[in-house]
Amino acid sequence: MTADAIEIVFAEDTKPEHEAIIISYMKSFRDRRLPIILSSEHLSLLLGIKEAALYSISNSVNAFYRTFYVRKKNGGQRQISAPLPLLLDAQQWILSEILQKITIHPAAKAYKKGSSIKENARFHRAQECVFKSDVENFFGSIPDFWVFELFHELGYTKSISRLLAGLCCKDGVLPQGA
């Protein structure tokens, strides 16, 4: 949804400077191809999920995950928290409509749409030395506050940023498997 596609009708007593602020706010999202989210009710309409259900999910998110374990190469186990369909739909919308539209650093390769291990390896070809590492519990090391801050820095209100972070996080962090 773009600012051009929305007909804005201001109350007669709305000050012109307030109208300009609102139009500028909406234009900033349109220019970055990000969805304009005006309220939790508006987000529920965009997601096709009732507003009460959005709050139910974000307030008791553990009930919307199925947790299981997979064996790691080293013999240990990795906990996977897979979102149930309703939450998965919301997360996929957030991914496709917001997160995949954010400009990321050119050196970032992981989880980048259209990127592959082969493409990443090509970058390192002919290097004298390559350092390989794995961040233990990578997703679990990203707190929900950072996720909130990401949405807030994009320009979403604190309440919308909190709701979006609540849909993305479990037990205060990004879950492995979502």
Secondary-structure blueprint:
Elements: H1 16-31, H2 40-47, H3 51-59, E1 65-71, E2 77-83, H4 85-97, H5 117-124, H6 144-153, H7 158-168
Antiparallel strand pairs: 1-2
Helix pairs in contact: 3-7, 6-7
Question: What would you note in describing this structure?
Answer:
- With 178 residues, the chain is mostly helical.
- It is built from seven helices and two strands; from the N terminus they run αααββαααα.
- The protein has helices at residues 16-31, 40-47, 51-59, 85-97, 117-124, 144-153, 158-168, and strands at residues 65-71, 77-83.
- β1 and β2 form a beta hairpin.
User: Can you give the helix content as a percent range?
Assistant: 40-55%
- State the helix count: 7
How much strand? 5-15%
Which oligomeric form is depicted? single chain
Listing every helix as H and every strand as E from the N terminus to the C terminus, the arrangement reads HHHEEHHHH
Number of strands: 2
Biggest β-sheet, characterized?
2 strands, antiparallel
Shape: globular
Distance between the termini: 26 Å
Low-confidence parts lasting 5 or more residues at pLDDT below 50?
none
| Overall mean pLDDT | 86
Strand order of the largest sheet: 1-2
Structural class, please?
Answer: mainly alpha
CA gyration radius, whole angstroms? 20 Å
